[in-house]
Design goal:
Helix content is 22%, strand content 24%. The chain has one domain. It has 198 residues and is α/β, with parallel strands linked by helices. The strands form 2 sheets. The protein has a 7-stranded mixed sheet, covered by helices on one side. The chain has a two-stranded antiparallel sheet with strand order 8-9. The N and C termini lie far apart (36 Å). The protein has 4 helices and 9 strands; from the N terminus they run βββαβαβααββββ. α1 packs parallel to α2 and α2 runs parallel beside α4. The structure holds iron/sulfur cluster. Iron/sulfur cluster (SF4) binds next to loops.
Amino acid sequence: MRTHSSLERSRVNGPGSRAVIWLQGCSLNCPGCWNPLSHSIEGGMEVEIASAVEWVADLHASGLIDGLTISGGEPMEQARALLALLQALRLLLPEISIGLFSGYTERELASGAFLSRDANPPSSQADLWRAIRQHLDFAVLGRFNGNRPSQQPLVSSQNQALLLLSDRHSYSDFSPLSVEFTINSQGITQITGFPILQ
Ligand code: SF4
């Protein structure tokens, strides 16, 4: 799969402490997108799914995380790789929380109306989403729209929706919007999270 970046531990991308993987490639062009470097399918780097699973498992075994959030870019553009990642994670780590950000609405995903580099027919795309969905604990779905700011947890604009897809979480598990700065041992700073827009 093609990744944009990753973060070992975040407290603003879902409940608890979570690793984050941003997948590379997005063709949705939401006005005001904060992560344009994640759009090109030429950018980022190829990562073996087995390596990503091992990375998450090591972080979990170290007690650093209790969940993983997958964001982008647009993760559904790599739907088959995303499903393979989720299946491998659920086999090895059924106890972790897994969340997904996608710019597509649930209606688009459920009808297979999303762009995937796998070039699947729509019926097969809908099946892919159903298979992906059953591995998720929550998802934040819908385009970013900077003209409709939201103050709801994980939701940047009012048209987006935070969906609970399992009984692992309740809405009270999700903290208010917040921004996080992480400085790693090499002195590299990563900024992630959700500022409150006016
Ligand atoms: S879906 Fe996300 S990455 Fe893609 S353009 Fe919209 S805000 Fe940016």
